[in-house]
Amino acid sequence: MSKTWLNNNTILLNGKPYEVKYFTKNEKNDLGKVCWGEPDKINPLLIYLLDQMRGFVGSPFRINYGTQGVHSPNSQHYLGNAVDGYFPGLSIKEQFLIAIRFPFTGIGVYPYWNNPGLHLDVRQIHQEYKAMWWRDSRGDYQPMETIQL
Ligand SMILES: [Zn+2]
Fold this sequence. Notes:
three-stranded antiparallel beta sheet; 2 helices; 26% strand; binds zinc ion
């Protein structure tokens, strides 16, 4: 299996080097651990989209979980296709409206995290719609149609 990172700030994207502007291989999360979990298991497309999104917004996006952490058994996290993170200082509504501008194929909205934020993934989908959901104050998953932003 090929590695994602060529060095601390370059990934191999579709066979070509791409210099990541706003994230690094060894970037730490709020817990002081490598934010990606296992950086070389992360899908390069995910890193590229996060970099584009971060550049569009112009303020940091903090990644707390990549392949590590506790997720549902078939989670995209374990495939290296997902991260959980947040834009410090932006409301959950602002974060969601930013994320949907980019071709992530899975977007989860988590208003009740300590730092409200998003799950973003690049799952392979076989229909034209993104997977989208939000998690309520009881920890239950809800369809996006029911969110109040
Ligand atoms: Zn997640």
